[in-house]
Amino acid sequence: MPPRKDPDASVSVPCFYGAELRYQGEAAGLTLEQLAEGSFRGISFLSQIERGERRMPDDLARHVDKKLGTDGFFERRCEDAAKARRAGHPLYFADVPDLEKQAETLEEWAPNVIPGLLQTGAYMRGLIQYGAPWTPPDTVDERVRARMARAELWKRADQPTYWGILRESVIRNTPLPPEVMAEQLEHIIDVIRSTQSVLQIVPETTPWHPLAGGMAKIMTFADAPPLVWTESDFEGRIVDYPATVKEYRRKYDLLRAVALSPDASLAMIEEAARTYRDEAQQGD
Fold it and tell me: Which GO molecular function terms does the record list (predicted)?
């Protein structure tokens, strides 16, 4: 097994607790294998916690405290790390923003809405307005800030390589005002071109294709196995079982093959943006 990298405790609250887990484990003379024994968690899961990439769930915190004799430290503090990571996000989404930051590559399929990393604040507000209109204004603001904070990774020199695939209906069929959609599609074009990313569109003339059941985000890492994030309206989950991740990989590659080329896809988005912009100006 390769040597474990020293976690940087100064990066974030989760990294702090990850570094503490590493320190306490080594002080107790326990390997990750020994620490994981009896926890119903895998070694790779504990390794990701050490690196600050995953939050520590309550059951594992209790196990670790008992194994290391840390007098409830991790059980008391793991919720602090969870709060630091999920501000403005649903609980089930808590790990994803940090995983996106750690990823070397991000590949996502968005059949229903524009991916979060490409959304404008106005588009996000529209999603909440039509999807959950009872949401208090303060909560809406918090969620929009959290969504925009995720997009900060585009400004990093070491940003992940990005490849997105959208269904054409995502840019065509929308209740949002033309001005909002024009701004949103122009933003997508700016991000994709300025970051040398790739975006493809699956046209409406292709009704049958892989991954028709819902969204998927495939993430690869420099020193950890690949993961898949999949989500529905009220829940999401991280898929890390290698055989299932491999199957997602195969289907995503096939989805690329049935989508329009990157150039044709951007041309379609540009055409849609012009149409929305014209509609917005005619309505003034």
Answer: DNA binding
